[in-house]
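Appendix B, Record 12. Input sequence as logged:
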Amino acid sequence: MSEIIEPFRIRSVEPIRFTTREQREDLLKAAHWNPFLIDADDVLIDLLTDSGTSAMSAAQWGAMMVGDESYAGSRSFRRFEAKVQEIFGFKHVIPTHQGRASEKILMSIVGGPGKVIPNNNHFDTTRANVEFTGAEALDLVIPEGREPDSLHPFKGNMDLDRLGELLQTRGSDVPIGMITITNNTGGGQPAAIENIHAVRNLLHEHKKPFIIDSCRFAENAWFNIERNPSCANKSPKEVAQETFKGADGASMSLKKDGFGNIGGFLALNDDDLAEKARNILILTEGFPTYGGLAGRDLEALAVGLEETLDPHYLRYRVQTVRYLAEKLMAIGVKIVQPPGGHAVYIDARRFYEHLPANEFPAQVFVCELYRFGGVRGVEIGSVMFGRSIDGKEIPADRELVRLAMPRRVYTQAHVNYVAEVIAEMWEHRHEAVGLKITRQAPFLRHFTAHLEPVRSK
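Logged structural output:
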């Protein structure tokens, strides 16, 4: 059949609140033109993030009922540990409350002034945790990964030549190398399994550990099945297991491809590095067999890690994003091509061609998206990745808006509505007014920044 249906039935529903445009304009003003500061109850369709916003299955809810809340050595941890080891293959499994905690622990050990951490593209929390230690977060994605219109099937690939050059010239400054799958900052783009293994081999030639940021590993596996002849006849689990073969560790937020509302892990093979990580974990997260999570969370995550590798689910997941992308392209909206696995990334610079980068066109888009239709997206542009140096704004190289689809939450009618809202915005795009920042934090400013229009409409 050509129609891709949701591979589940809905057995529980949650009402959503409808607001008028006038109400939303007042709410947006009260939130200082930052959708992060809008209460969720005032959002009709929330595409801010796919992190922790999934709908859990009946099997996950059932698993929560047998959670063992023992402080140390609970059977729920052992089930969780076994599932992570089955899929990812690492010796040490260290649970954390979410992915950024794993990053914080890892970077506290390997980071520091003068260090450089290569990646295809660091996402916001990864970059912040690297830079918080004084280290440099270096993006080495292939050139096609920076071209929004490129149809390269694996735009999340690492540029091996640039990585090799870095290791030759600054090898002593590189404590580890990373790759993010899928590449969130670059548009949810996958990395080919051959490229992942080539990165591993190059790092190992220089005796550097290879760590995979694994938040959307199942979606990355599915893209390899769809686009990579070497994976065409394999199951998602087989591709995932092959992906991590020979790697030295993985960090993961299980709030993405773990179907969790909370949770993550740091998995490692090196005994010494794992011991250091556990020592920090005890200080910040909890005992190593719960790591800031309840036993019921560990049970639900073990089930979720199995469910996320279901090919029927992955086909539906990718097709949902593709469906929205095709509707927007039909209007004339420019997006990062090809559509990613968890989100559509809109090129706000080309949507609002009359707005300069220092007026934050991607932030304008997310504000207008809420104002027109009560839909919340997230800016991935100069508010998130720009810099304020001595009062002067240094813009990011791209102005993207991510519409991230929560897993198993919205239906086709919701997606159609989002497309209609953006179509109306497209008709009125020349009326949009730029924004300026009036208050910001030194790290991850996009979460709490205050903005205001540069002029009245």
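The chain is about 40% helix and 15% strand.
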